[in-house]
Amino acid sequence: MPPHEGLVHPKEYDIKDSNVELIGSDLDHRVKYNSAATEPAWNNGQIGQEPGLYIWRIENFEVVAWPKERAGEFYDGDSYIVLHSYKVGDKLGHDIFFWLGSKTTQDEAGTAAYKTVELDEFLHGTATQHREIQQEPSEEFLGLFRHIAIRSGGVQSGFTHVEPEAPKEVLTLLRVFKHPRVARLIIVHEVEPTWESLDENDVFVLDKGDKIWVWQGKNCSPMEKAKAAQVVNDMTLAKHIDVEVLSQLESRSRVIVDLLGGKEADAATFQAPRPGRFSKQTDDAGDVRRKLFKLSDASGTLSFDLVKDGQQVNQSDLVASDIFLYDVGSRLWVWQGSEASQREKGLWLKVAQHYVRQLQNDLSEAHLIPISKVVEGYESPAFTKALA
């Protein structure tokens, strides 16, 4: 009997869990069962051979190519793998990101982590690997796209059977805003369709099914207006319905507030918080914590020891025969020495996520910290900067 037979309800992924702990589990066997000896996604003649941006979505344990024209579009119920290959002299450098939506399933998240390791092996183990969380994407990840669109929903799991719901009124609200620190990056983020989601600094697109409304906050930018117009154009290609654009400064704009349940609201200003790193907060506070740990089995027993606490970390502190975990507060770096053992290499993400769970005792949001791994001799510019 196939190892996945009889499964009907996938568990929603808890971002606080460690996906690498799933390797060797039933999920690991299911992934292997659904994989050929070589992964077709990596064998298209381009991966590892040409620079570019490549995106795949995890669908029923398979790695499925994401359309190039939809680059930057993600669903919160899915997991994705993003490969950025770029020229470094006469060679190629690689960054692999596995992006986990806030409502992705345990199966999808585990498959994304497993396949990321597989892709790194296909690229001869030289890639920088990144775990990306929807709520706290790294700036390296955001910098790959001119715009980001995060929508609700996602691919239906192969083991989920959802009964169709009765038809209901469509009410979708999209928030369009500029990223505060990544130049020219526009975010399109689906938000709760309520008047309390409105913010006078941004543009909102309300799809009511029979009509599309655009609400332009009084302090929004021309870039946000232009992006909203593009979003509306894409939406109306599939269905020909009326569109009305209203500025917050127009008295008629109140109709949108009413449609979103704000008939009784008496708001003089509209200000809704942005999620995670899409907010205007800075990372300065997070950079206070600097700790360096060493993962080593040189003694025959695996050990994880604190090497530096609060001091500046330099390249000379890193030893080729071991793996080091470098906590800079806003990011958790893992440096893999070129002579590290297979045992050490196989445990890097498991150890990193265990460390993050320990941080949660004092920092409840620690599970959202970006985690990245670099390999000796192939360090990314961001990692090199963290050492400076």
Automatic annotation (TrEMBL):
Q: Where in the cell is it found?
A: Endomembrane system
The answer to whether the entry has keyword Membrane is yes
Q: Name one cellular component (GO) term.
A: cytoplasm
Q: Alphabetically, which GO biological process terms does the record hold?
A: actin polymerization or depolymerization
**What SMART domains does the record point to?**
GEL (SM00262)
List, for all copies, the residue spans of the domain called Gelsolin-like: 70-142, 188-236, 312-383
Q: Which GO terms describe its molecular function?
A: actin filament binding
Instruction: Enumerate the UniProt keywords alphabetically.
Output: Membrane
Q: Which branch of life, at top level?
A: Eukaryota
PANTHER family, per database record:
SEVERIN, VILLIN
The protein's name is: Actin depolymerizing protein
What organism is listed for this UniProt entry? Aspergillus sclerotiicarbonarius (strain CBS 121057 / IBT 28362)
Taxonomic lineage is: Eukaryota, Fungi, Dikarya, Ascomycota, Pezizomycotina
